[in-house]
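User: Predict the structure for this protein chain, please.
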Amino acid sequence: MDPFPEQMAAHVPQAVQVISSTWARDSHDLFDFEAHHLHTKTFTVLQSMVCVRNDTEVMMMRENSSMPMGSDPLLRIIQKDGYFWVDKASPSTNSKKLWRVVKDSSAGHHLTEGDIIKLGRFKFKVRQLGTSQMAQPELRLDDANGSCCPASLDHEALASTLCRICLLEGSTEEDPLITPCLCKGSIEFVHLGCLRYWIRGRLNLTDGATGGSYFYRPLACELCKAIYPTYITTGPAGADRMPLVEVPRTTPPFIVLENLVRDSQQHASRGLHVISLAEKVLKLGRGHESDVRIADVSISRCHAMIRFNQGNFVLEDNDSKFGTLVAMKKPRLLESNSSVSIQMGRTVLKIQVQPDNGYGCASLLPAPRTEDRAIRLNMLARGRPDLDNLPKGPDRIVEPRET
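Assistant: Here is the predicted structure, written as structure tokens:
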């Protein structure tokens, strides 16, 4: 599918104004929106160009031209069918993401499932947006075990089998023995109720949370280190499914945000934030009053907010120091009389489509012919330019006025 769909409406030629601001420090791909000393440049783009940065110097270059040594490509501005688009610097999938700056949008950003949000150097993924009164959070992570079945043996055969937690024998329909991990032998079986009670204590799940909000993370067996499954399947051929963890019922509308950890050392913080927005605005930040608290120096005390407004989940920045960003999923059409700010590391580009102001028309004028240039130089050498003998029409050369 063509990522740049055809546009049917006719319009006048336009130009793109690009204002680049680069922070002098190079730290974790951050940009300090409170910094006073920034390297700023302004460009007028009339055709497809590539924006590159060399140290703090930002340049606009033609496509397919060779970049200076040590330069990093930032993004492409593409002209197609008279319209301008913003896209990644390289079409390859491993090209760096472009991050839209939420701070510059007075209406905030309308979230959709799959959006990746960046606060400072911390990232979230929007896993689920629940608006239906019947909807409940889907707790499964991408790489977590899906489900497990109760022990394949019948309850009579398990009458003398011990649960490794309560050390009581037997299995029943209400509280079956299950094998949720890779442990074998005398510690293979555990009562579903016993495991649920242990997990609830580890996750600190309480029924008194506002609207059923909580933080869920996958837990591992302390013995074999295998991740416990998210769901238990019962009934004929596993037709019935119920969560392994008994979580509180969440009041819609709600949002499910997944922590995207940067490395294996932060794996313990990976999990899902389930937050109900039925009676409040969701606050994200470093402060203790935040609903989602992020203990990171790049996060402001109240960094950003998410509110439910007229059927939409709206992300807003709260004048944070290092900004609130949303990853661009596809090329973005630049609309007339509107601007968008895009961050790539320590550089922010404010991009706005403007009327051509004659730039495009000037570029279409033919260059003076060689013989006309020779006549002009000859008359200037004599000191008396005879304007009547100069060419007429589009090739006419007009002398500059004295100022």
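Helices lie at 192-203, 359-364, 370-382.
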